[in-house]
Amino acid sequence: MKRTAPDYNAGDLFGEIYLVESAPAPIKRRAISDYLPGLILCTTASLAAAWLAGQYGFPIILLGLLIGLALSFMADVEATSHGLDFASRRLLQAGIVLLGLQVTFAQVGSLGWLAFAGLLTVMVAAFAAGLLAARWAGQGREAGILAGGATAICGASAALALYGVIGRDRLDQARFSVTLVGIAVASAIAMSVYPAIAQMAGFGDRQAGFLIGASVHDAAQAIGGAFDYSDAAGRDGTVVKLARVAMLGPIVALTALWLGRSAGAKGETAPAGRRALMPWFIIGFFILLALNSVLSIPEFSRDLALTSSKALLLMAVTATAMRSRLADLLDAGWKTLVPVVAASLASFVVAFVVAITVL
Fold first, then answer.
1. Is residue 17, in this structure, part of any structural domain at all?
2. Of 38, 171, 261, 279, whose Cβ has the fewest other Cβ atoms within 10 Å?
3. How far is Cα 59 from Cα 181, in angstroms, rounded to an integer?
C-alpha cells in the first residue's frame, strides 16, 4: 500500500502500535521576487530620509527611523515581510563589514598609550552606566548592553551590530527602535552642545578633539563637531573617533561570547548563529580592517565603501523600524530611554575629566 502521509503508524508482530516519523520536509528556498516588494519599499523610504536630511540638515538615521515607524503597518503585509526581514538582517551585516575599510591599526596607534587608556576609560564608563541604568529601570541586561555599547562605540552602527548578536528573542524590536531614536537624538544634541562646552572650558585643540571624538555617538557628527571647533581639533577628534570604531569588532565579539555563555549556564540551547565565538560579519570587519592596515587601498574605493555602508545601514534601520509595532513602542515607555541617557552622560563626564587631567 502506498503511503502519502509524512508520519504514519506501523504495527509489529505483537500488534503494538508505534509512530514512525519520516524525514523532515526540505526547507523551501525563496525566490528573489519574494524579497523585491519589501526591498523596494525600504529603499524608497531610505531615499526619502536621505533627501529630507540633505534639505533640512536633520540626522539621516533619525529620519529613517521616523519614516520607518510611520510605515510600520506595512510589516503586516505578507508581500513585504520577507524583504524587510532581509534588509534588517543581511543588509545590516554587509554594512558593518564595509566599515572595516574606514580605520587602520596605525590610526589607533597614533593616539598614544595615554590618550588610548583615557578613551578606554570613557568606553568602559559608558558601558557600565548603560548596564546599571537598565537594571535600575527594570529593562534587562540586554537593553543596557545595547545602549552602553552603542554610546561607547559609534552610535546607530554599533547598536545594529550589537542587536545582531543580542537577537529579537532577547530584546524586542520595539525597545530596540526606541533605543535607536534616543541614541540619534542624543548624538544630535551632543554635536551641537559639546563644542560650545569645550569653548567655555577653554580647552585646547587636542582636549576639545578628544572630548568630542570620545563622547559624541555618531561618527559623522563627532567628526563634524570636532572640525566645528577647529581644524586641529577636527584631526584629533577624527583619530579618537576612528579608534572607537575599531573597537566595534572586539566588543561585539565579547558580547556574543558573554551572551552565549549565559544561555549555556541557564541550560538553554543557543541558536546556531549565537554558538559561534564571533559573528561572521565581525570577522569580515576585522579582515577588511587588516587589509586596510597593510595595503594601500585607493581613496576612491574607501569612499565608495563608506557610502555603501551608510546606505546599507540606513536601509537596515528603516526596515527595522517598519517591523516595529507602534502599540509596542507605547508599551515600552520612557524607561527604555534611561540607559541611553545614563550612558551618554557618563561618556561625556568621563571624557571631560580625562581631557582636563590627562591631555
1. no
2. 261
3. 11
* pLDDT of 104 above 60: yes
The three cell numbers locating residue 266: 541557564
Could you list the residue range(s) of the whole structural domain that residue 259 is in?
Answer: 35-357
Cα separation of the two ends of the chain: 85
The rounded distance, in Å, linking the Cα atoms of 78 and 95 is 26
pLDDT at 331: 65
How many structural domains is the chain composed of?
A: 1
Q: Which residues pair with 17 in a beta bridge?
A: 11
306-340 tens-digit pLDDT: 888 888 888 888 887 787 766 655 666 677 888 98
Residue 5 domain-assigned? no
Reduced 3-state DSSP string for the chain:
CCCCCCEEEEECCCCCEEEEECCCCCCCCCCHHHHHHHHHHHHHHHHHHHHHHHHHCCCHHHHHHHHHHHCHHHHHCHHHHHHHHHHHHHHHHHHHHHHHHHCCHHHHHCCCHHHHHHHHHHHHHHHHHHHHHHHHCCCCHHHHHHHHHHHHCCCHHHHHHHHHHHCCCCCCHHHHHHHHHHHHHHHHHHHHHHHHHHHHCCCCHHHHHHHHHHHCCCHHHHHHHHHHHCHHHHHHHHHHHHHHHHCHHHHHHHHHHHHHHHHHHCCCCCCHHHHCCCCHHHHHHHHHHHHHHHCCCCHHHHHHHHHHHHHHHHHHHHHHHHCCCHHHHHHHCHHHHHHHHHHHHHHHHHHHHHHHHCC
Asked, for residue 11, whether it belongs to a domain, the answer is no
